[in-house]
Amino acid sequence: MNDKTSKLIVTSVALSMIGAACGGSDGDEGAASGAADCAVGETDGDLALYNWAEYIAPEQIEEFETEFGVSVTQDVYDSNEAMQPIVAAGSSGYDLIVPSDYMVGIMKDGGFIQPLNKDLIPNLANISDDFSGLNFDEAGDYSVPYQWGFTGLAVDLEVVGTDFPRSWDLVFGDAADEYAGKITLLNDPRETLGAALKSLGYSLNSTDEAELAEAQEVLAGSVDNLLAFNTDSSDELLTSGESAIAQVYSGGAITQFLGTDDPSRYTFFVPEEGGTRWIDNMAIPFDAPNPCTAHAFINFLLDGQNGADLSNYTYYGTPNAESVALLDDELNEFLTSPDLLAGGLDSVETIVDTGDFELNYSDAFTEAKG
Amino acid sequence: MSNITEPRGATKFLLRANAGLVYAFFYVPIVVLVVFSFSDNRNVGVWGGFTFDWYRDLADSEPTKDALWASVQIAAVSTVVSVVLGTMAALALERFTFRGKKVFDALLYLPVIIPDVTMAVMMLVFFSQAANFFGFSKGFTTVTLSHIAFSISFVSIVVRARLAGTDDTLEEAALDLGATRWQAFRHVTLPVIMPGVVGGGLLALTLSLDDVVITQFVTGSGWTTLPLYVFGLIRRGVTPIINAVSVVMLVASMALVAFSLLAQRIRSHDPV
């Protein structure tokens, strides 16, 4: 979420109310259509996919079209907040969407996505155990993991050396003073305050005002050392030498590293106190015109080879246990690096929607930035 | 002779410097954009030698071409329709008095002052309900209708400004001399207001090609316009392919303006 989208949150909250109000009249219909009633691999029309840009290899779409004899139309959105009101208003015409973790929770609670018919997705068995019991969709009744990644720190080893704490101290503590003006943080209230909360040992989904106030203080104390709050080009700032330490998303970081002459000059890790794990998921809108095709597509992408093709294109992590062995070597090396998760898988959390408390986060963020 | 004299000395210098800076402020970013579209480095802003690769990528990228084509179709139709309707509205409001004129006038300007996002939400709710009721799917029709809805206001403002400065006795004279209403409009009024109509049309075209907020809310499957696609791409990091797209759009719109200027120049030499 950047500045623009966080302002849009207010709008989308208002919109979901409108959506809920409008949905009222045809709500029964939506609920009745529930789990799709068809056979495995059966299609009931063309697929309208609503996805993030460049988030699936064009060849995979062609492959699906050939194998199932349907055509696929893809449209793109640039934030969860832009996608949600469109689907929520109804008659969007989309069969499959790819919301992030917290947005699955919002859309599930709002009745904007339909329960999946798991019988139609035998490849669900391929999903790794790390992705069971997710806090936004406990039983996985509404969503299937698509790609995932971490938020952590990327470091230019040539500037910082190899002997540095694998900790948020690197940006919030005394260690940061040495790199004043060479540090960037994401321009996102939840990610940035989340990091500060983690550095204090709290949950990054905290709804405790005192904890948030402490985090705000930590963040405010680091502002003087920052080059910028930047989401869209923090990777580039690092590899162009303007910054030396950057809070980044893992997928963007590795793509950026591999694009340089010497990728080993950089490293990415999630600090030992923990960080964010985000998961994008496939879900079917409540009024999807062709839910059978959507199920067929989900099952298709969960195939081991197809899952690997997907990650080899996006360079994000795959939730598919059968795909791991088929990943590109450099991607696999990155994902399985022992230094990646300094605090282990238990230290990372997925951001969940905190409802009205989101406003406390954006206020605290604005005040901390000063 | 005008009694306003040209400024001299330091004033003249400062005014020129100011004008120069204003132009630089407008055009330097465009020059930078164009230059880096030829840069052989995937980071925007880092020069990596000259290359046409991004233009080749652009030509190879199906989604980008689809988005460009969607934008062009929507812009073409919405411009033509809004120019016709906007000009008609301008003529009616400027030439005649009728019941409810004030209300119509005020309503026509509403889209100019309403914030985009408000209009977008209204359109979204309206089209979703309509799509549900009549059983059509959102897409080309809904986007084009929304673009027409806000473009009409801009076209009619521009055309009215032109109409207000013209003498309607010309049209009366034509009618007195035996022209039909249509002939008087076609051969007398239209040529006079043509700069306004063309200006309004270009404005409508630009608005349609640029619009993000409203389009995002009313579009449907298969109708992602170029600006929407570019926004989507930026989320995954900015590469010079976005510069290349922008340069193509820039050249196309400059060609369009040049073409319309040329057309007007040729026409003005024609005996009417």
Radius of gyration of chain A: 21 Å
Q: Average pLDDT value of chain A?
A: 87
Helical residues, percent of chain A: 40-55%
Low-confidence regions of chain B: none
**Number of extended strands of chain A:** 9
Q: Based on Cα principal axes, name the global outline of chain A.
A: globular
Structure report:
- The complex is a heterodimer of chains A (about 375) and B (about 270).
- With about 375 residues, chain A is of the alpha/beta class.
- Chain A has two domains: about 5-150 and about 280-325, Periplasmic binding protein-like II (D-Maltodextrin-Binding Protein, domain 2, 3-Layer(aba) Sandwich); about 150-275 and about 335-370, D-Maltodextrin-Binding Protein, domain 2 (3-Layer(aba) Sandwich).
- Chain A contains 14 helices and nine strands.
- Chain A has helices spanning about 5-35, 60-70, 80-90, 100-110, 155-160, 170, 190-200, 210-220, 235-240, 250-260, 290-300, 305-315, 330-335, 360-370; strands spanning about 45-50, 70-75, 95, 145-155, 185, 225-230, 245-250, 265-270, 275-280.
- In chain A, strands 4, 5, 6, 7, 8 and 9 form a six-stranded mixed sheet that branches. A three-stranded parallel sheet of chain A has the order 2-1-3.
- In chain A, helix 2 (about 60-70) links the parallel strand 1 and strand 2 (about 70-75).
- Residues about 1-35 of chain A have low confidence and may be disordered.
- Chain B is an all-alpha fold and about 270 residues long.
- Chain B has a domain at about 80-240: MetI-like (MetI-like fold).
- In chain B, helix 3 packs across helix 10 (about 225-235).
- The longest helix of chain B has about 35 residues, at about 60-95.
- The radius of gyration of chain B is 23 Å and the shape is globular.
- The mean pLDDT of chain B is about 85.
- Classes of the chains: A alpha/beta (about 375), B mainly alpha (about 270).
- At the A-B interface, helix 1, strand 1, strand 2, helix 3 and helix 9 of A face helix 5 and helix 10 of B.
